[in-house]
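$ ./design --mode recover --in tokens.txt
reading tokens...
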């Protein structure tokens, strides 16, 4: 008769297994933990759950094993090293300067503009599905291909070049590298110069980068300049793609105003964006903005949370996520919003609500929690609360946060 491998046992049975391996009686083990023998017995029989990060780590320390082993997970979480490696690969790609320095591309062919445009579209889709590790892997070669294509055909490859830099900037903000994202968005702005729509599209990521860097007033000023440069004289006659860009830039300006403590200006700007969103409706993704009425409502949640009005943020979140437009937004957008909502729940003293929001984010977009520093920070905050869902406590231990 074969014994059950320890990695597939319940947590309590796994504690008992490793306690036996260390030749510790329940009483000695309990003494070392500062617990009662009854507590140990209940844990090992599964009557009592190990549902706090600190307790799991104390048990693992006494057993001289990694806490993740108790959860039957890989001992070394790979997400942090994968994120760092991805950022460094993109940094290397942005540092090559092959075209201006006249460096040889070796045997690599210069791809037609149409082909690199399709590659960029694929990268955008992957990003909007929150497949951040895959996008990080794609970007170095994609940036090289699109830069060479642009050198060969500046007109046809101009849009793919700007879009590739936009993707890089968005991903780098997600991965917690705003300084490097600034380099990518700067190149997008320069490549788009002379085309007001391309500049406006790149300015969306500029707003993200500036806000991620805490440059609230600079962000607000730049976003308003970019938005009003393409604003139609009469909203009713504005083309949807231009209205989407203008509205998205107004949203970015509003979030910057909220970050700077100007709640009144944030509300006014969001009202202005809402008027444009009403002309477009939900379910569209002009210039990869996902702009529409639901987007503006989610921005009101973020602005309320940024302004310290967490109760209002929670109420708006619960209403906004019942809209049909919520389901039509890209996965990345929904998951990012759920992080904002989780923070708001925490600030209202509701770790259960925060846990629900975070578990939904992890369900639809695991990389938002596992690869994004902001997601890991929220997870750590929730996991420290005694009322945190056990699943999130286990995830926190596995990811090495808490």
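writing sequence...
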């Amino acid at each position: 008769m074969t014994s059950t491998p320890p990695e597939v046992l319940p947590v309590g049975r796994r504690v008992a297994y490793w306690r036996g391996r260390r030749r510790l009686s329940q009483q000695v083990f309990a003494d070392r933990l500062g617990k009662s023998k009854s507590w140990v017995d209940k844990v090992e029989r599964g009557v009592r759950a190990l549902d706090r990060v600190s307790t799991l780590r104390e048990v693992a320390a006494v057993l001289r094993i990694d806490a993740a082993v108790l959860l039957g997970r890989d001992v070394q979480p790979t997400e942090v090293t994968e994120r760092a490696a991805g950022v460094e690969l993109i940094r290397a790609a942005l540092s090559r300067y092959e075209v201006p320095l006249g460096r040889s591309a070796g045997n690599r062919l210069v791809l037609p503009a149409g082909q690199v445009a399709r590659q960029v579209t694929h990268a955008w889709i992957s990003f909007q599905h929150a497949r951040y590790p895959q996008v990080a892997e794609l970007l170095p070669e994609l940036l090289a291909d699109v830069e060479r294509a642009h050198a060969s055909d500046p007109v046809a490859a101009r849009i793919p070049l700007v879009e590739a830099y936009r993707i890089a900037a968005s991903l780098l903000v997600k991965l917690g590298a705003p300084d490097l994202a600034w380099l990518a968005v700067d190149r997008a702005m320069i490549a788009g110069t002379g085309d007001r729509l391309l500049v406006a599209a790149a300015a969306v990521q500029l707003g993200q980068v500036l806000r991620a860097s805490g440059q609230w007033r600079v962000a607000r000023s730049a976003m308003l300049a970019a938005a009003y440069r393409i604003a139609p004289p009469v909203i009713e006659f504005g083309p949807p793609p231009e209205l989407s860009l203008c509205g998205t830039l107004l949203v970015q300006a509003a979030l910057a105003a909220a970050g700077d403590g100007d709640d009144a200006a944030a509300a006014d700007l969001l009202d202005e964006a809402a008027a444009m969103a009403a002309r477009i409706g939900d379910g569209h993704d002009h210039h990869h903005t996902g702009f529409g009425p639901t987007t503006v409502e989610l921005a009101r949640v973020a602005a309320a949370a940024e302004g310290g009005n967490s109760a209002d943020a929670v109420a708006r979140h619960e209403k906004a996520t019942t809209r049909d437009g919520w389901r039509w937004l890209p996965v990345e957008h929904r998951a990012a919003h759920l992080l904002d909502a989780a923070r708001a729940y925490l600030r209202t003293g509701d770790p259960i609500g925060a846990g629900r929001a975070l578990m939904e984010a992890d369900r639809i977009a695991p990389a938002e929690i596992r690869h994004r520093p902001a997601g890991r920070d929220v997870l750590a905050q929730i996991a420290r609360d005694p009322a945190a869902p056990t699943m999130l406590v286990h995830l926190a231990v596995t990811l090495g946060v808490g």
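exit 0
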